[in-house]
Structures are given as C-alpha cells and as structure tokens.
Amino acid sequence: MIIYKEISSLQNHLEKAKNNNKKIGFVPTMGALHNGHLSLIKHSKTADDIAVCSVFVNPVQFNDKKDFEKYPVTIENDIYLLEKEKVDILFFPSVEEIYPEGLERNFSYDLGYLETILEGFYRPGHFQGVCRVMHRLLNIVQPNDLFMGQKDYQQCMVIKKLIETFGISTILHIVPTQREESGLAMSSRNLRLSAPAKKQAAAIYKALCFIKENLSAMTVKQLKEEASAIVIRAGFDKIDYMEVCDANTLTPVTDNHQNKMVALTAAFIEGVRLIDNLLL
Length: 280
Hints:
alpha/beta, Rossmann fold, Pantoate--beta-alanine Ligase, Chain: A,domain 2, 9 strands, globular
C-alpha cells in the first residue's frame, strides 16, 4: 500500500493508472475503521483494478465542535487494517491540503428538502460540509466507482444528488450495513460507548425490526410510537427522530402500504448519537 498526503503525488499516480486503462474504486472515510469500512473496501477490490481509501476527519461537517474533538483517531490501526485488506492507496491529507483556501467559504449546495429533514434538520450545516469535502475528494481522485455504506442512508442520497447536479462521472454503490452480532450497526462512534451501553444500543436495531415485522398490523403512527418506546426502555437518553419514509425520496409516509419504504432513527445513549435505518 502506498500512502499519499499530497494531492499532486496522488494524482500523478492515478493518472498513470488511468492511462493504462485501470479502473479506480474509492472509499472515503474519517478513519477509526471497522468491518463496515472493510466491507466497502472488499467491494472496491472486487469491482476495480485500484482501490483508493481516504482517511480525513472533515472539520466542516461537524455542527458541534465538541463532537469533532471527540471523534476517535486511530490512524496506526487504520493503516494496519488497510494493509491487511491489500488496499492499493491510502490518501491521508491534512486539513490545509484539502482546504487550501481555509475553512470559511460562502459557496452552498442546493440540496432541496434533503437538507431540512431528519439529519438535515437536527444537524444544520452538516450536509453542506459533507458535500464540500466529497466534491473536493471526487475531483481529486476522479474514481470510476464510489462505495458508501447504507447506514448513512440520507448521506448517500445527498451524495447521489451531488453527483447528478455536477455531472460527475462516478458511479455510486451503496453497500448494505454491516452489523455486530447483536444487530447494532457498526460505527466509529461505537468506540465511545461503554460495554453495557453497547449492549443496550442494540435496541435501536430491535426497534427498526419491530417496525418491519409489524408493518401490516399497525398504523405508521403506532409503529413509530412503539419503536420509540423500545429504544427509551432500553436506556437511551433521547430520540431525535423515529421515522418511516419513502425509500426513494425520504418524504415521511403515513400510509404503510407504499411499495418501498425505509425506517430511520437517531438516538442518544451515554451522550453518543447513533443512527440506523432498515429498508422495509
């Protein structure tokens, strides 16, 4: 595995590869890697000739500065895991390399209603920061394929819109969520949970499964209320949302007989905010 910290060196390498008709796969991460990330890398290794992974904790997507400061940094272990997976290139840039003009910028992305609901509502400015870094990374790497996890369902929809809006010639592949044996979605934030809280946190998946299993027996309102109760009874501190939406548009639904729906939730335990979703 080759580690690049500078854009120019990385692009020189990738340009030579493309001149030799090599397909480039890209997995953007913020580090603290786990099996969910490694699943994305496996998909990239299967589909493409060269697998590129980036590790960059993006400061502009944290609407809470404390959340940014607490984000786990485990670069030595990340490098070990990436080498084990035989990743071809790790892009590990500094903030100055990604944002040479500084963090302040007036340009904004038109994300429509996607920015006003669910994660967009509870984390104002978050998706602007996500788009800013992803637009930059996609311009730098110019991959044929981009691999992202379904756990960040709304973020995947935002990136899909970014790609379409700017005519970026990259194909987005959404990879199913990887889970612990308990059902808890794998997340870098799980590192911040105590062992008891991690066990309790599995209730978030249990609640989503309840919605799926009882979809035809209860109204959407009843499903959301009972699913929320499951999470609170398990010891979660609070819930930002427990919602059932159209899987293609993310607009909330009231009729549970639609063709394709997704249940989504965000909740806090031990001060750590966890998100998850399940296609119904």
